[in-house]
Structures are given as C-alpha cells and as structure tokens.
C-alpha cells in the first residue's frame, strides 16, 4: 500500500516532535522540487541552443551529440575551440561574400557606363554622318531606342524591328527631314517650324514631344537644350 504525503504528514503529526518533522520534510520536498525545476530550465536552455528541444527524439539527439563530442575529443579536438573557429570561419566567409557582391555590383555599373558611352558615341556618329542639325540633342532622344543584347551587340529598335544603330538613325532622319541640315539654303537661319518664342526646352520635354511638336518648336529647340 502506498501512502500519500497527506497521510504521512498526519501520521507524523501524532508522534512526539511530529510537527517539527513535518515542517522539515516539507522544506526538503520544496528544495527537491526547486532543484528539479532549475534543472529543467537549464536543460531546456541547452536544448534550445542546440535546436533539439522541439525534436521528436530528444534523448536520441542528445546521445548522438554526446557521441560526436566524444569522437572529437578522441581525435584531439576541443569542441569549445572548434566552435570559436567555426564562428571565425563563418565571419570570414561573410566578409568575402560581401566583398564579392560589392565587386560584382561595381563591375556591373562600370559595364553599364561603358555600354552607354558606346551607344552615345555610335548614335552621335550616325547623326553626324546623316547631317543632323543638332546631333548632341537628338542623341539623347534616340538613346531610348537602343539596347544591348546578351552577346554585347547593340541594336536600334524600331517597333518590332531590330536594326543596326546606323540604319536606325538613318531611318529616323528620313522620317524627320526637319532634323537634317538644309545645305541648299544658306542664311535662312531655320530649317523649319514657327518663329521663336524664347522658351528653353529640356531633354525630358523632348522625350515627351511628338515629331510634329518638335518640328513646330524647332526654332527654340535648335538654340539649345538643357540637360
């Protein structure tokens, strides 16, 4: 027959000095419970740090971990030092990864600048060969039609068609004769459009204007465009 704590306390209370014995027993029980609770907390902290607390087989995982540590010690390794070394290695890997990412970003930016420079150079050359009135102005407008393919080649997109930059610019000039110098008339001072209104246009203005609008305001545009 197993006795409950209440039965034991009642029995002890009936003997001489029983009250003191009950109080002492309760104190010891409280200490045991407190130690057990502290041990559970410490155990859970270790399990949490190892990521084992939520596992289905905690005991098996702990045994495997203990076996691994034992093997490392037999091989002459210090688990604590190895943990520090692993943290150092992880930091070094992160530093190298960050440096590689920054280097790749810088290389991509420099490549984009080189491509943009080549685009502008080729457009300017094509506009100059086509006797455009303002090659530097029209170059900024036409750059939006040019893109680089995966193989690095540059193409001029005219709708769904892909042309060389030279052919694309030539076609644009043909469709916009007002943008070409009129060598047959000297001293006219204008190649088309209405009189000057004194307004100064920006590149953003030109990008949003139609051909007809550019032609209409060419007297002002030809005097200079702000970046």
Overall number of domains: 2
Net shape:
rod-shaped
Binned, the helix content reads 55-70%
How far apart the termini lie comes to 100 Å
- Most strands sheet: 3 strands, antiparallel
Structural class assignment: mainly alpha
Total number of helices: 9
Keywords:
2 domains, two-stranded parallel ribbon, rod-shaped
What's the structural blueprint in terms of helices and strands?
Layout (H helix, E strand, L loop, with lengths): L4 H9 L4 H33 L7 H17 L4 H51 L5 H8 L3 E3 L5 E5 L2 E3 L1 H11 L25 E2 H6 L2 H6 L1 H4 L3 E2 L1
Parallel strand pairs: 4-5
Antiparallel strand pairs: 1-2, 2-3
Helix pairs in contact: 1-2, 4-5, 4-6
Describe what this molecule looks like in 3D.
The longest helix has 51 residues, at 79-129. The protein folds into 2 domains: 5-79, no CATH class; 95-181, no CATH class. The strands form 2 sheets. It has a 3-stranded antiparallel beta sheet, covered by helices on one side. It has 227 residues and is mostly helical. It contains 9 helices and 5 strands.
Brief summary of the model shown:
It contains nine helices and five strands; from the N terminus they run H-H-H-H-H-E-E-E-H-E-H-H-H-E. It has 227 residues and is mostly helical.
